[in-house]
Amino acid sequence: MQSLTPLEIQKQTFSRVLKGYNADEVRGYLALVAEEIERLLRDVDRLARENAMLREELDEHTQRERILKDTLLSAQKVSEDVKANARKEAELIVKDAELLAERVVAQAMTRMSDIERAIQDLKLQRAAARSKLRMTLENVQQMLDLDAEEESTEQPITALFKKRNE
Fold it and tell me: Residue 158, SS3?
């Protein structure tokens, strides 16, 4: 079926017959039909424009929704990556701290062992010095004893001269 325009309806002519319809009534009715079709065509045109505009809006909203979803997924991925990196970094820090603690403990143990050896050496030196001092004191005591003994048996100098002269 061919689509009719309001102008075609208004210009439509009919042949006359004897017992036909009243031409003025037909023309009046055609005018009303033409106005109604014109109004309906305007509505269809307006609705088509509105539909196109709403479809554009829908497309824009769909695109924004897609962008927001992509952004959200990216943000979640970045968040998970940041958490994973932070976890790995924390593990590395803990391992480094454990290794450092082990090194510090090992150094402390080595230092303690060195100090204990030094203490043992000093004890040996102290025992040797004590022994040496004891021997020195004994020698001094023996010398004092000998000196006292000599002094008791010693004769005065004049007695020596007498023995010589005799």
Answer: helix
Check: CB of residue 34 under 8 Å from CB of residue 9: yes
pLDDT at 3 over 90: no
pLDDT of 13:
74
Domain boundaries, the chain: 6-121
How far is CA 164 from each of CA 111, 127, 158, rounded to the nearest angstrom? 74, 52, 10
Does the structure show a pLDDT above 50 at 69? yes
Q: From CA 129, how far away is CA 4, in angstroms rounded?
A: 136
**Can you give the pLDDT at residue 78?**
95
What is d(CA 21, CA 26) in angstroms, rounded to the nearest whole number?
A: 7
Decide: 5 and 39 in contact? Cβ < 8 Å.
Answer: no
